[in-house]
Amino acid sequence: MLLLCCDEDTWTWPLVAPLPSYGRGRERPGGRYMSFIHGDGLRDVVITGENGTIDGQGGIWWNMWRQGNLQFTRPNLVEFMNSRGIIISNVIFKNSPFWNIHPVYCSNVVIRYVTILAPTDSPNTDGIDPDSSSNVCIEDSFISTGDDLVAVKSGWDEYGIAYGRPSSHITIRRVTGSSPFAGIAVGSETSGGVEHVLAENIVIYNSGIGVNIKTNIGRGGFIKNITVSQVFMENVRTGIKITGDTGDHPDNQFNPNALPYVKGVTLKNIWGVKVQKAGSIQGLKNAPFTNICLSKINLHGMTGPRSPPWKCSDVSGAAIEVSPSPCAQLSSPQQSGSCANHF
């Protein structure tokens, strides 16, 4: 798709409606600029090549965003909606204006052998964001962008609650990359619910957070049955972060009593070096995070084997063979059942 006019001040770009589970554009109210590659209601789609490059030429969009000159939300590089049977492989994606690959309301999606590149200061250039989608496999890929490498989502506050479509059965494996934000993320838009996520054999370096699970008051929904295993991280500010007070709201109409629940999160076999802070798990006072299992986790600091201690609140679960020692809420022997089914 090409720009439809000839100079930066006057060009126009096709618009599409806001996603119903978001109620507006992610960045701006109203519609959204159409993605460079966009499909709705498709079946059996293949995007592949011999590592050829699709360049979104995002620099102009990033500059306009920084300058506050955009009326609508920036376009993704690839977005499929209400589609199934999608394969994306053996392609290099670079310089997306916004999120790189965004399957939303989709099923049976395979993304493999891709490389996704954007400068570390490029705003909101998430790598792959499965959103209210099911049966998604992301594997054998390298991602280095300005935002989360992989972020599982399912809608935003009252709009996502009303739409009610979760993300489920998401597999992420053999992914390597770096980001100033998170390597593997769930949220913060999780109002339709996120469940049955497996991330394994992940390498994260030069990043802000290794594993980040995030939601907020007003989100509603749930995050449950999440397993992250076999992770190596190096030069990361925070190894593990699970929080209930992050992310913004689409408007002021969200219900402050719509509290998310987070249950059944297992993080195991994780090794980190040059990790500035081991972890933080901050539940909500009226919706504590439960059945959190940390197992066989070693996160070493910048100059030696000890990192700053964990910070926790409103959380229950168990921790087995975790260094540095986790917070007391995760070390009670009677809570060891939280990890009983994960060995």
TrEMBL record:
SUPFAM superfamilies cross-referenced by the UniProt entry: Pectin lyase-like
InterPro entries, per database record: GH28_Enzymes, Glyco_hydro_28, PbH1, Pectin_lyas_fold, Pectin_lyase_fold/virulence
Question: Tell me, what is an example of a GO biological process annotation in this record?
Answer: carbohydrate metabolic process
Q: Which domain of life is it from?
A: Eukaryota
Q: Does the keyword Nuclease apply?
A: no
Family under the similarity heading: Belongs to the glycosyl hydrolase 28 family.
Which PANTHER family does the entry mention?
PECTIN LYASE-LIKE SUPERFAMILY PROTEIN, PECTIN LYASE-RELATED
Q: What's the protein name? A: Pectate lyase superfamily protein domain-containing protein
Q: Source species, please?
A: Gossypium raimondii
